[in-house]
Amino acid sequence: MTSGMTGQLQLFESRDLSGAWNVRVSRRARRLSVRVYPGGSVEVVVPPGASAATVHSFVRNHREWIDQRVADLSAAAPRAGETRPSSIELRAIGRTFAVTYQAAPGQTVAYRCGPHDDRVVLQGAVHSERAVANALRNWLCELARRELRRLLTQVATEGGFRFERIQARRQRTRWGSCSATGTISLNVCLLFLEPAVVRYLLIHELCHTRHMNHSKRFWSLVATHEPDYKRLDRELLRGWQHVPGWVFG
Prior knowledge:
alpha/beta, Zincin-like, four-stranded mixed sheet, disordered N terminus
């Protein structure tokens, strides 16, 4: 395997040989890891120099977990939804925004929505689905940076956690992550999920500020702050079903 290579896994049984299984060698990887994406595709991330036998053993040992994640995520791709929504429901913050369209000269669409407004006004080339989606994504990201910071700060204060900084980004594969330096990255799509599910994800990432792993101590800490974490984790896996298609275009 060469660094940076991405391709089908040719080292497993025939039932694994599909476009849904990929292996990627990463110079940044220190150990083998596996990711299952919405839709059920699987990626195995491999550090340079790992042998096919090592990768095969890793997948075999994690096969039950992979199969369960594939089953959960096979039908969890973002929903198509409307390309020109008349309203947008953000369950995480309990708000529904009406969307109005005002045609104006130009090739782009600008949005207008104050911090306390429940209406998003799109103005410009509103006949263009792409321009409308870009404007809605820009609005969503701006709102998410403000609201997710508020929610994370609230949960951290309640649980006695500390974090260094927060990032809110539009991602296709991760709901959140925590770096070794205490930076917590959150997916703006969390705004479409139920409050209890979002709270669990925030607790999950905050617990990583104390345990940068998924050890028994980590899960014990999660359970202390959210005893129902197993059910909520399953709900989180299916969360992509609530994300409208215009978020990713």
